Amino acid sequence: MSAVITPTPGRIVWYWPAPNDNIPALAGQPLAAIVAAVHSDRYINLCVIDAYGNHHSRQNVFLSQSDEDAAPSGFAEWMPYQKGQAAKVEQVQSALAAAISTDGVGVTTPAMFAETDGTSASETGLVNTSNDSAEQTPGADASEEAEAQQ
């Protein structure tokens, strides 16, 4: 993933404790952590929840933003779902930028929003398929008729 996810207080991340970290954890499993404060896109303060549900604070924890990051021991990372959502947003933004640059006027078509799994744009909710523009407010015809008779 090339996009950086901006951390904000309250977001959930995974915390991988260092071997010498005295936080009870199950082998091979991350611990849930809540972002308490943000120093930068790479360093955050955490409220870490151990394997027994107790909380521990950790300051200036490295937040790995990609699989290529050389993470020190005792680091945090985004959960796979969060990484997937960020990748989808990046894909849509790239497609939008490409469509705007190729047609010159910024008009995009619903087809560009189709998911790679075959989901159409209308199924994803990105396109309004109802005929809202043809609907009128109740009583609109009566008021138009009244104006025409005057």
Present the secondary structure layout.
Elements (H helix, E strand, L loop, with lengths): L11 E5 L14 E8 L4 E7 L5 E10 L10 E3 L2 H24 L17 H4 L15 H10 L1
Could you characterize what this model shows?
It is built from three helices and five strands. It is of the alpha+beta class and 150 residues long. It has two domains: 12-78, no CATH class; 84-128.
Q: Give the overall silhouette.
A: elongated
The radius of gyration is 25 Å
Integer tally of domains: 2
Which strands sit side by side, in order, in the main sheet? 1-2-3-4-5
* Sheet/helix structural class: alpha+beta
Largest sheet: 5 strands, mixed, barrel
Low-confidence stretches: none
What is the CA–CA distance across the termini? 66 Å
Order of helices and strands: EEEEEHHH
**Based on DSSP secondary structure assignment, what is the total number of beta strands?**
5
Strand portion? 15-25%
Mean of the pLDDT scores?
A: 77
What count of helical segments does DSSP give? 3
Determine the fraction of residues in helical runs and give it as a percent range: 25-40%
In short:
It is built from 3 helices and 5 strands; from the N terminus they run βββββααα. The chain is an alpha+beta fold. It has a 5-stranded mixed barrel.
